[in-house]
Amino acid sequence: MTYPLRTIQEDGDAVVVLDQTQLPRETAFVRLTNLEEVAHAIRVMQVRGAPLIGATAAYGVALGLGAAADDARLTHVLEVLGATRPTAVNLHWALARMSAVLAPLAAAARRQAAWREARAIAREDEAANAAIGANGLPALRAIAARKGRVEVMTHCNAGWLATVAHGTAIAPIYAAHAAGIPVHVWVSETRPRNQGLLTAWELRQAGIPHTVIADNAAGLFMMQGKVDCVIVGADRIAANGDTANKVGTYLKALAAQAHEVPFYVAAPVSTIDFACPDGAAIPIEERSVDEFGAIDSKVANPAFDVTPAALIAGIVTERDLRPAHELAGLKPD
Ligand code: MRU
């Protein structure tokens, strides 16, 4: 198997995705053939990561429409997919884009147009993430120029597995490694779903030195001066730069500020929700308590938290790296 793979591939009238619930133990694929299978795959996190969820949902629309999809069917498909996960805005962005393209068309033309648009969304995500790698690289290069190497900390998985290809937060790390910059990555485990182990798996495939740490060890390593910068992905960035990402991100940002470690967010422009004024308006997904295993007490399981823009040194998109409070210029026309 050659890594990285493209995480979502067309296969006749279906799409094939890597089953991320089996990783890193096993590399298994799932063939998604209809609306219910796509909705299930997103809900149980066979596919996960905001950009990949968006692309998968777009293909889900194509798979959910019959040969002739009337308005009622289109609305149903959009509603089912829209209800799968609340925080990752790429899901809702992709569905809105599909709706804008498909709603004006005649029923008989919708299915084919849906495949075309889903393909475009997937291709654009791939290109955007490659550009994020290039736009984040100078920050890592500058650190390496001073110190001879770079120590990066990340949280959750924002590598190629979380996107159609390349990754978001990990894209600049891949770019640095490809440019010959010595880079080591502190990978936090990311309880309760352990997406950090997916990041470690990716970095192993790429031959990039890394160390897995317990989530709660992040502050210690920053205090000890072992971290030059933090780069994380995002599930939704509000118009003012407040950023929702996997729960635990906020604590890393607080520790980074305390120890003067620059804290970057990397995400495509499709992750910026210009209609959302600030972090307080971002819906936070509450996931099943079963993710904690058997515990005989009440459990709360918010999947994301919000890092205020003031703690973010810069946001890297496919357009550039800019301050978190200057996102307005990125708003599409
Ligand atoms: O709940 P998940 O695994 O879908 O979480 C989303 C993420 O992958 C992370 O929050 C990531 O940092 C942002 S998406 C590239």
The averaged pLDDT comes out at 97
* Silhouette: globular
What's the order of the H and E elements? EEEHHHHHEHEHEHEEEHEEEEE
Integer count of domains: 2
The gyration radius over C-alpha positions equals: 19 Å
Q: Cα distance, first to last residue?
A: 41 Å
| CATH H-level superfamily of the largest domain | Translation initiation factor eif-2b, domain 2
Small-molecule components bound: 5-S-methyl-1-O-phosphono-5-thio-D-ribulose
How would a textbook summarize the main sheet? Answer: 7 strands, mixed
Q: SS-based structural class?
A: alpha/beta
Tell me which CATH architecture of the largest domain applies here: 3-Layer(aba) Sandwich
Q: Work out the helix count.
A: 9
Q: Count of DSSP E strands?
A: 14
Strand fraction equals 15-25%
Point out poorly predicted stretches. none
Task: Write up what this structure looks like.
The protein has two domains: 8-124, translation initiation factor eif-2b, domain 1 (Four Helix Bundle (Hemerythrin (Met), subunit A)), CATH 1.20.120.420; 135-330, Translation initiation factor eif-2b, domain 2 (Rossmann fold), CATH 3.40.50.10470. It has nine helices and 14 strands. It has helices spanning 35-43, 50-64, 71-82, 89-102, 107-147, 171-178, 195-206, 218-223, 249-258, and strands at 8-11, 14-18, 29-32, 150-155, 183-188, 210-213, 229-232, 236-238, 243-246, 263-266, 272-273, 304-307, 314-316, 321-322. The strands form three sheets. A seven-stranded mixed beta sheet has the order 6-5-4-7-10-13-14. The protein has a four-stranded mixed beta sheet with strand order 11-8-9-12. β4, α6 and β5 form a beta-alpha-beta unit. α1 packs antiparallel against α2, α2 runs parallel beside α4 and α4 packs antiparallel against α5. The longest helix has 41 residues, at 107-147. 49% of the residues are buried. It binds 5-S-methyl-1-O-phosphono-5-thio-D-ribulose. 5-S-methyl-1-O-phosphono-5-thio-D-ribulose is lined by residues 45, 48-51, 156-158, 162, 168, 195, 232-235, 245-246, 303.
